[in-house]
User: What shape does this take?
Amino acid sequence: MTDPRATNTSARRRGTLRLTLRITPAGQQLVNVERLDMICPPAPPDPPEIGVNSGHWVTLDDADGRPLFTRVIDSRAFGSAEIFSPDGTIRHVVGQVRAAIVEVLLPDLAEGVGATVIGQPMDIEGRGERDPRESRRLVSFDLRAHRQGGESS
Amino acid sequence: MSASDGYVLGMSKIVDHGPNSSRWNLVFVGDGYRSTELNQYRADVNAIVQQFRATPPFDNLFCGINVHRIDVVSTQSGADDPLDAPDSPAGTPTTANTYFDATFAGTGPGGVKYDRLLVIDAALALSVSNSVANRNQVICVVNSSKYGGSGGAVATCSTNTQSREIAIHEMGHTAFGLADEYGYGAGSPPGEPTQPNVTRDTNRTTNKWRALILATTPMPSSCSPASECMASTCVVPSSPGAAGVVGTFEGAAYTACNIYRPTTSCYMRDFSPFCPVCSGIIRTVLAVYLPPETVSLTTPSISFTGVPAGMGGVGVTTYRAIVWETVSCRPLTFAVTAGPTGGFGLPSGSSVTVTSDSALPITSARLWISYTSTNPGDVASGSVTVRCNETGQRWTIPLMASTISRPKAAVTLVLDRSGSMGDDAGDGRTKVQKLREAAGAFVDVMRAGDGIGLVRFDDTAKRLLEVEDAATGAGTAQSIIAGADLDPGGATSIGDGVLEGSAMLADAHPVPAYDVKAMVVLTDGQWNRPPDLASISGSITANTYAVGLGLPSNISAAALTTLCQGHNGYLLMTGELTASQSMRLSKYFLQILAGVTNANIISDPRGTVTRGSEQRIPFWVTSADYGMDLIVLSPYPRSIDFQLETPDGTRIDPATIGNVKYTVGNTVAYYRCALPVLPADANGSHAGQWNAVLTLGRLPRLPSGEQGRDPFGKIGVPYEFVAHSYSALTFDAHVMQQSFDLGATAELDATLLEYEAPPGAGYRVWAEIELPDQSINSIALKLGSDGRHQAKYKLPIPGAYSVRIRARGENLDGEAFEREKTLSAVTIRGGDKEPTGGQERSRVDRLLDHLADGDGIDDKGADRLKELGFDVRRLLQSLRRAEHPWSEH
Assistant: This one.
């Protein structure tokens, strides 16, 4: 379970990690990690929890796997799109995910050594009907190798 | 159809609210723009930025945002439009080779195509956007008018104006984590959505946005129709929540069932304004990027000390601003809560609201205070209390004022009467005749209370009239100007004249003292008698103006320019006075008079009045103007019927009773007015468009020798119209030259102030430059951060340049105005070698001095030789030019 005590501070803090993820039917890959001199945008105060919430999110984890920060990500990368009309209506369409890039901004915390993508598996059609009880850790990344040295890796 | 189909040109930061590391950074890239379409791309981006900025809550958060534009050139224009999606209309597919490979009918989830799904190579766009390392959001603008767009790591939108909404909606997802608030269909997802703006929870004590829900709002606030959702557990309220009220409205996150949104509508549902919940989330995110808000009063007190008494019993109303420097994203309102006391006014109302501009969070707030002068010696004091409604800050500002007599000026005319002044000026009249006309008009237009003095110079200088009040001395001055004291003869000792003029001003001690002392030097030649001008410059304390009558090659242009620039004045060069410019010298004298007496020139066209025609000359007066002189220069001013037409169409003629007086001299006629001119019609006879109306009157009595001329025939009567205003809208301009050689650069500088502050942005300043070959160039003067308008102009050919610097536009009250000032620039081959003093004079010079002194031939002899066809004076001039290469033309 995600630790609900994980805090999403809104303090004006410089130092941000940008994770670039590639989403494909085969899964999620960490393509790039950049260390940036920028303020990390705050996230909503109540982080989602496995088994409770639907959708997808990424946590920044400490060495023991405890989440330090949670960023909700746009679930449309996992197999949906919006079709807009000039009359102002918007249509949501779903289907098998093709390939998408997602960028995630996380605070560059010294104790943050890993990142985890959490949400429903992608092999279920009809995202809107998915049961949050199916949420689970989809993949974890060790950021230590990426975070050594320069601004980007 | 990839990166090989174009190139990245560069990046510009188009909204700069501070360091990128401290701000939220929005990056634009463009696709389908050829190099020739980049201006259109820039305009398209600006349009989206303006719409973004105008969309609440971004309007109040904009100074936390930087915007960057990356210019990308594509090989071809537009985007692919294959029209092969199931929902595509019929038509002919098109393709375009573009950098990011933009295409409509993009493939969506499940491999299905959608006609309006506009997609690009997002990975490439992100890579290009890495030139802004700390970017938060990337938007790709695609050069197609077809409606379309998409979301994801890079939002896309076409140039269709409705497509801009797509980009803003998509930012709601990507940058702020907002869910869609539309829903349809019977699906009923069991989990609580992760996003902060949709929920399953209708309990007012646990709901995500419970802090915004009023106790009176029903929960749930409305339910979807049963036809849309049979499985809904929503309990229909007895009366639904009103539109705009925050509650829980069923239907969101792509389902009509059991998922609720905060309000009936929102940008995340139907492009309506962002609901309070979404606005709050956006504010929370952007708050960390906002610079600290500051409001600082920069005018702790307001002083109107020394406001001149008005004209004709009408007080002069002057404005001063209470000024705050603000750094803020939100509009700030400064409102008067008490006062002003002490007789001060609030001419622009009792409050002012300011918003920072689109590129900087720093702005100034100005609340205007007015004071109308009364009688000299009167004083006033009071205070005003102002509150900033948003910050709660309060200030009590002391106000002080005093009325003084109108500033008085003493002017000495230092006039050249050397032998060459008997030469033709270029229009059939001698130079000395031109001098008499110009000096006469100058004296005619002077105000009572101002002082006039006269000095002439030839080999030496002589005082002709000690400085005397124009009210009593004008008649004497006119007699001297017309008399034998100025008959041409002798050499040219400009230095002696300048010294004597300066000494005369120093000797003038009226009570009260003159506020301004100025000297106007007129000469048509090179100085050829010591002292030289450079050696005496340090001993001069008066403002010094000079008028060069003739061509710069014949005049000590460099030395005079240097002298004037060092004494708050300038040199004007008439050039050759052709028939069409025959009154230019008089006009220059009046311009100098305006400068000396703090008047502004608002118009000075010229023309010809012919029988049966009516000349209407428009000019604009603002409420900042409190007096004006409207002057017609003409060889026959009494033959012109000169009237004024007020903004409401009322005619003013010499018999009109009001704040107006009409005067006619030998070469000048003018109205002197205090504003408003007609007290009974104050609104109609002040600000607005006026007209000077000129028609031919009675036949002139021509001077002897000119009886054969008929000015009323085909030629008509020429005139120059000059309008001077006394105003709080002031314009000043300068031309500076460091070099006088061919190819030198003239530096143009102008300042426009209204109540001592720049009058907004609704005006422009430019210069019309007449070259020695009569061609005219026009250049804009650019506004710098110091409030000065500046430009540089290279002087390509030798000779005198007339530089007419002009300003036109609207003042703070939206009233049209014009201002102008004519100046000169000069280049001479070898001009920088012109001696400005200190050099030992050559033997040839000394010989020429002796000849010019009359040692070789006196004036009478020279005149007799000239009648016989031998102009000895020109011969001496030619010899002197030969001795001085810098004087060669």
Observations:
- Chain B touches chain A through 63 residues (CB under 8 Å).
